[in-house]
Each structure stands twice: as structure tokens, then as C-alpha cells.
Specification:
Order of helices and strands: HHEHHEHHHEHHHHH
Structural class: mainly alpha
Strand order of the largest sheet: 2-1-3
Shape: globular
Number of strands: 3
Number of helices: 12
Helix content: over 70%
Strand content: under 5%
Length: 340
């Protein structure tokens, strides 16, 4: 019902008179946006290309390894690792939305992104960003049940509930992103089309509009509460219960064992929200686009790259699964070639 209602709202928002920008696009061709990003430092572009390409490959490979390990290893067929594989997929999508285009622009010394390409970036960036947020909230609930209700864990976190939680996270992310992206079609863009980022960030795109953005801002604030504030509140509530439960454990070994079950997730949550808040606080405190650009790199590239290391270094089961995956890799490759 929520998804259907959202689509109805979106439909009524976009019927009627097209924006001047779209009318002009139909007549003379749609104008392009310019992603300024790192293009102002041409002498640094080869170094930046190598650096970001390496970081992207590490991010892609590390998160893909987690997904393959969870799928192939029966020891990891549990709710925690099921949600972890969804988080890794979201991290791959999150970085793949922005980094390949940035690498292409650095390599070709171009700043251009088409109108359709910019809207696509906005859509997928919001989808995977919100999915990260919601999956982290679901994982916090999973840790809350595991620590505070261990005897009922398998009953509560049954496969049906896990599937519904994952499906709900995906549905909310796609619906919220659709609503925020489609409202951009109402706007006219008649100012400079330069975006001081390496990707089409929704707040930066809205700044370029010369038409009224009150509907857009209202939708953004509304969806931020649903897809941002509520999940964060759920995480804080879950960990308040977890910490109070751990404090009631008498033995130091018991406390360490309980905390170790949520240590990796807590590290990822801290990294995700600290870098995310850093982006928006830096843009609010200072008008320097360079500071905001560096903060965005931390949020969109560094954080997804570090997540696999956090889970693999702090998790004995994941280390064992990686070892078994590597040992089986040669036989899997041989089978693939035989199939060809």
C-alpha cells in the first residue's frame, strides 16, 4: 500500500504542464550537466585515476568475495550473513553508481554528464544509500535479538522474516528514490549547469534549479525522516538494549563474547554515519567545495571499501569462509572452462 500510494503521489506530481527545461530539451536537445569534481587539477588527474581505480577494484572485489562466500559456504547460512551479503551488494552498487563515471571523466579529461545520466545517478545513489541505511538497521535488530533473546533467536529470525525485512528494505529504498528523483522532472534549469562534485548529488542539482523547489525539498525532508531518521533511531534503540543487556552479564568473558558478536556491525555503523554526517556538516559549516568534495570521497568510496576488511578481520567464520573459497577457486575455474 505504501508503494502504491507513493506511485500515485508521483503520478499526480508530474502530470500537467512540462517544465521549461524539458520543453526546451524537446526542441533543441537536452543540455548536459558538468561535473567539476577533480577536473580543476589536470596535473593530478593521472594520480587520482590510479588511486580511485585501485580503491574501486578493492571495494568491488572485497564485497563480491563476501557475497560469494555467503552463497557458497553452508557455515554462513544464517540471518546475520544473509543481511551482510545484502549490505555488500548495496556497497557495490553505491560505488558503481559514481566511481566509473568519475574515472571515465578523469581519463578523457571531460566534465560532461547527460541530463538522463545525471537523473540515473541521483536515482541509484539514493537507492543504494538508503539501502545501506536500512540494512544496517535490520542488522542491528538481528544483533539485538541474538544478544537479548538468544533462546528465541532461531524462532524470531526465521527465513520468512529475514526475507520480508530484506524485501522491505529494497522496496522502501526504490520507492523513496523514485519519488525524490521524479520530482526533478518538474524543475527548470536555467543557471550554470556546473555541479561542484564528481557525481550528481541531489542537493547540488536542486541548487541549479531556477524554478520553485518547495515540493522537492518537502519530499526530500519527508523521505529523509522515513529512510534516515527512523532507521538510525532503530539502531540507537537496539544498541541501547544490547549494551544494557551486556552490562548485566557478570563474567568478563561473557561480556567480551556478547560484545564480539556485534563489534563488526558497530564498527561499520560508526564509520557509515560518521562519514555521512561529515559530508553534510562540512557543507553546512563551510562553503568550500573542496572540503565537501573530500568528505564525499570518504563517504562514497572509502567507507564501502573498508567494510569487507572490518568484517573479515574481526570475524573468524568469515576468515574461514574466505579460505575455503580461495581453495575451491581453481576447481571452480576448471569446471567453468570445461563447460565452455
Amino acid at each position: 500500500m505504501f508503494i502504491w500510494g507513493t506511485f500515485c503521489i508521483a503520478f499526480f506530481l508530474f502530470i500537467g504542464k512540462p517544465s521549461r527545461f524539458m520543453e526546451r530539451g524537446n526542441q533543441t536537445g537536452v543540455r548536459n550537466f558538468l561535473l567539476v569534481g577533480f577536473a580543476e587539477d589536470p596535473e593530478l588527474q593521472p594520480l587520482l585515476f590510479g588511486l580511485f581505480l585501485s580503491m574501486y577494484l578493492v571495494t568491488f572485489t572485497g564485497n563480491l568475495a563476501i557475497i560469494l562466500a555467503v552463497i557458497s559456504d553452508s557455515h554462513l547460512h544464517s540471518p546475520m550473513y544473509f543481511f551482510l551479503s545484502n549490505l555488500s551488494f548495496a556497497d557495490i552498487g553505491f560505488t558503481s553508481t559514481t566511481v566509473p563515471k568519475m574515472l571515465l571523466n578523469l581519463q578523457t579529461h571531460s566534465k560532461v554528464i547527460t541530463y538522463a545520466g545525471c537523473l540515473s545517478q541521483v536515482f541509484f545513489f539514493i537507492v543504494f544509500g538508503c539501502l545501506d541505511n536500512l540494512i544496517l538497521s535490520v542488522m542491528a535488530y538481528d544483533r539485538f535479538v541474538a544478544i537479548c533473546h538468544p533462546l528465541h533467536y532461531t524462532v524470531i529470525m526465521n527465513p520468512r522474516l529475514c526475507g520480508l525485512l530484506a524485501l522491505g528494505s529494497w522496496s522502501l529504498s526504490v520507492t523513496g528514490s523514485l519519488l525524490m528523483t521524479l520530482t526533478l522532472l518538474r524543475l527548470s534549469f536555467c543557471r550554470s549547469m556546473k555541479i561542484p562534485h564528481f557525481f550528481c548529488d541531489l542537493p547540488e542539482v536542486l541548487k541549479l534549479a531556477c524554478s520553485n523547489t518547495i515540493i522537492n525539498n518537502t519530499v526530500v525532508y519527508f523521505m529523509t525522516i522515513i529512510l534516515g531518521i527512523f532507521p538510525l533511531s532503530g539502531i540507537l534503540f537496539s544498541y541501547s538494549k544490547i549494551f544494557s543487556s551486556i552490562l548485566r552479564i557478570s563474567s568478563a568473558r561473557g561480556k567480551y563474547k556478547a560484545f564480539s558478536t556485534c563489534g563488526s556491525h558497530l564498527s561499520v555503523v560508526s564509520l557509515f554515519y560518521s562519514t555521512g554526517l561529515g559530508v553534510y556538516l562540512s557543507s553546512a559549516i563551510t562553503s568550500s567545495s573542496r572540503t565537501s568534495l573530500v568528505a564525499s570521497v570518504m563517504y562514497t568510496i572509502v567507507t564501502p571499501m573498508l567494510d569487507p576488511f572490518i568484517y573479515s578481520l574481526r570475524n573468524r567464520d568469515m576468515k574461514g569462509a574466505f579460505g575455503r573459497l580461495v581453495s575451491r577457486a581453481p576447481s571452480l575455474i576448471r569446471r567453468a572452462f570445461r563447460g565452455l
